[in-house]
Design brief:
Blueprint: E1 10-13, E2 24-28, E3 35-42, H1 50-63, E4 67-72, H2 78-87, E5 90-93, H3 95-106
Helix pairs in contact: 1-2
Length: 118
């Protein structure tokens, strides 16, 4: 679940291919907590595989990113949440969190259909 507030000065959406799985890149220019943020968006019908979270960590390492955000229309399992928490640099936004962010920031009441509640 999304828990923080972030201010990014630059945000770029990447091309569809040859992007290392990166869907967006944001830069926070704050000299203390700033840096490169890698953003990935995944659409699943069921729980997000832990491999997707681990892959984001790999891309973060490869690109020397200070933060990684994985957004999904689905939900994350315990293993994924624990892994992300251990890194201390990853934010996982599930379907409910995405819905809340859309409502809060864009006043969009989105319908994110899932086959079952987690």
């Amino acid at each position: 679940m999304f828990t923080g507030t972030h201010t990014f000065s630059v945000c770029v959406v990447t091309q569809a291919s040859r992007d290392d799985g990166i869907d967006g890149v944001a830069t926070n220019e704050d000299p203390i907590i700033g840096g490169l943020c890698i953003i990935q968006a995944k659409r699943y019908k069921n729980v997000v595989p832990t491999e997707a979270v681990r892959a984001l960590a790999g891309v973060m390492h490869d690109k020397a990113a200070t933060k990684g955000i994985l957004v999904t229309t689905s939900w994350f399992g315990t293993t994924s949440k624990e892994f992300a928490q251990r890194t201390g640099r990853m934010e996982l936004i599930d379907g409910r969190g995405l819905k809340a962010l859309l409502k809060e920031h864009l006043n969009i009441d989105a319908l994110i259909g899932l086959p079952k509640l987690p």
